[in-house]
Each structure stands twice: as C-alpha cells, then as structure tokens.
Amino acid sequence: MNEMKLYLGEVFYFTDSPLLSAENIVYEPDSALCVCDGLVVEAGTSAILLQKYPKAEVVDYQGSVLMPGFIDAHLHYVQTEITGMYGRQLLDWLNQYTFPAERAFADTDHCREISHAFLKELFRNGTTTAVAFSSVHPQSADILFEEAFRYNMCMLTGKVQMDQEAPEYLCDTPEQGEADVRALIQKWHRKGRNKYVITPRFAVSCSPAELEACQRIHADYPDTYIQTHLSENKGEVDFVRTLYPDSPDYLSVYEKYGLLTDRTLLAHAIHLSDSERKRIAKAQAIAVHCPTSNGFLGSGLYEMEKANEAGMQTVMGTDIGAGTSFSIFHTLGAAYQVQQLNGYPMSAFEAFYKATLGSAKALHLDQEIGSFLPGRMADFIVVDYNSTFAQLYRYEYLKRTQAWNIENLLFGLMTHADDRAVRATYIAGQCVHER
Ligand SMILES: [Zn+2]
C-alpha cells in the first residue's frame, strides 16, 4: 500500500440513477479521493481520510471537482480529422467527407498517428472510456487497441464490417471481415482493459451475409459488444426499407440477425416508432444520443423523455466526426437544447449520469468504471468549474445570492465548459493529461 494517494477536492459521483432518488448523488465540498495501485480505495471527507491515511501522498486539487471520467459511447476515431465539414445530410456527408478520410487508414503509419492524436484529444476533454468505430481496415482497430493498452485504458472498438453501398476501397467481404474480426477478438478482447465491439456500420452498408457473419461471431463470443447506427436520418430509414423490403421497420433488420442484445449500442435512434422503443427497452439495448452530430447533419431530435418512459437506456456520444466537439460538457449542453426543443428540460444530474455511471451500467461495466465506489478503476478527472470569465461571473453571483450548489455547478459546466475546464485526467491512477 505504499503507492497510496489522496486527491483533495470536491468529490462528485453517482451511486445509482439520480432519476430514482436524490440520495444517489454524492457531492462533498471538502473531500478526498483515496487511490492505491490504480484503484479507488474510498472517497469521503478530507479531514477523516487525512487522519485515516497519514502516510498517503497528498495531491491538492481543492477548488476543483473530482469526478469519474466521461464515457463517450459513440464516435469514429478514424474521423478525427474531419469534424466541422460544411453542409449536407448523412448519406451525402458519408460519400463526400467520411469515406475518403477513412480510406487513409489502410496505411498503418496513419493509424498510429491518428490513434495517438485521438487518445490525446479524449484525455484533454476528460473522456477516459470510449466506444469507437475504427475503419474497415483491421489494422485500424489493431493499432487503436495497442495504443489504448499502453495507457491501461478501457477502450471498446472494432473494425467496421461493410460490404455494399460504399466505395470498393472501403468494402470487405463477409468472409474476410469475419476472419479479420475473429483474429482481432483473439488478440485484443479482454486484453488489459480492451473490449471488442462487433461493428456492422449500419443496415445500408451491410448485406444479409455480412449481418449473418456478425451474428455468428457474437454467438461464439457472447461477451463482445455490438455497435451500429439506427434511424439517424429519414432518407436513411427509407433506404433501409428498399434494401430490406421484408423487414417491417429498421430495427427489425438487426433483430432478424440476432444483433439486438443487451450488449448492443445503437447510435442516434432518432426516428423510432413506439414499437421500436419498446423492443429496444425489452432487449436492454443501448441508445446513444449524439446531439451535436444530429444538429450538425440536420438529422432530427432524439426523444429522451419517450425513451425514458419506454424504459430504454440512453447514454451519450460525441459522434466525432459528424459531431462537432470531443467535449462531453459541450455534448451535454447540446443534449439539453435538443431536449428543450422536445419540451423536456433534462436536468444536469440526468445528463451527467448518462455520461458516467448510467453509461457504465448500460455497458455492464459499472464494477470497473463510472463511479468512486471502492474497487473501481481510478479513472477520474479534475474539473475547474470557473475556466471562463462567464462561469466566474455566474459563480460569484450564485455565491452572493446563496444559490451555489452542485446542480448549478454541473449545469454551468454543461452550458459553458470545454477542454479548458479539464485540469487533469487520470487513467487507472496515472495522470495522462494535465492542463
Ligand atoms: Zn456514427
């Protein structure tokens, strides 16, 4: 126990959903996080912990919030270079910007360079776990896993499987794709903190044989994850209908091939029927809300309240590169605006929960990440809640009027914060970023 450290600050985390009980919100102004050998020992009042662990090394982050690192549950690392490309909707955007950018990942040096930049950008923004799409090239996933492994990071990724409706240079075949994925699973799944995610891009770019290959792989490795896109854009929904005329709706394409499971992440899930919502909830699949992307591509408004009422699990994603920011703060602020347009003023607690413990639970990873309960990996961030002048004026006003509290603190981060708010990022107790 000689590597014990005490991080002083304002500890904040959830023990369960804040929508169930306010008692699931833990916040203490003068508190500390005790970490040993990369794991959380406990979190609590600083005076008590300082006395209990007199030999621990003290790291002073007083005046900042210590919270679990963010989980970005949907983004494309191979689109790191193409955020903010002007104009158009999903299907044109893919053809004009995405596919040419992804083509470059045939080159392993490029995979290495962008993997590195991608991880740095995640850490700079306080994201400690990502569920990421690689490109169709197996080396793109291989190298991202390798880089994440170096940091002892919880990385979920997979090589894209797609065999139609895309340029030939980005298509695999169901056979080759399956062989490549099986090799990647054997090499990386559960190695360190890496987890493999079977990645059929979306129904449009997958033939029935490709989806069957995904189904076979998941049947053989049931603790892998599955990620895809669902009902992002109306043109896409119509296109799926023409490609799969026997399927009554978009979701049923994935159901038919056994791909709707409690380990399936469905990015966007905007244009859904009540029946689709019920079936997603019943399967305990995970919808990933990506508000900056949905606004940027004009895709539509994700219906959080309806999803909650149906019992669906929603988590948060940036969807880089259609998403416009790596920042989860920014993403939560955008989600708030989308939900406002739906007439649902989502609380700051709900927003932060869905990017931390709520996401960890949906992924069956809450024993590893998402909170400061004892034994969790020490993946945490140090957050400066006054990193801009606008925040400082707001803070001083709320202090003066005795209205400063954790809810105001979090909501201010959602509306104002970006990477400047992240003072430091720790993965398994190691500092990987310091502002
Ligand atoms: Zn996406």
UniProtKB/TrEMBL annotation:
Family from the record: Belongs to the metallo-dependent hydrolases superfamily. ATZ/TRZ family.
Root EC class: hydrolase
UniProt-listed SUPFAM superfamilies: Composite domain of metallo-dependent hydrolases, Metallo-dependent hydrolases
Pfam families for the chain: Amidohydro_1
Keyword check for Secreted: no
This protein's name: Guanine deaminase
InterPro entries per record: Amidohydro-rel, Guanine_deaminase, Metal-dep_hydrolase_composite, Metal_Hydrolase, Metallo-dep_hydrolases
Source domain of life: Bacteria
The Amidohydrolase-related domain, residue ranges: 65-430
A GO molecular function held by the record: guanine deaminase activity
Cofactor: Zn(2+)
Gene3D superfamilies: Metal-dependent hydrolases, Urease, subunit C, domain 1
Catalyzed reaction equations: guanine + H2O + H(+) = xanthine + NH4(+)
Pathway(s) this gene product operates in, as recorded in its UniProt entry: Purine metabolism; guanine degradation; xanthine from guanine: step 1/1
Function: Catalyzes the hydrolytic deamination of guanine, producing xanthine and ammonia.
EC annotation from Swiss-Prot or TrEMBL: 3.5.4.3
Cofactor annotation remark: Binds 1 zinc ion per subunit.
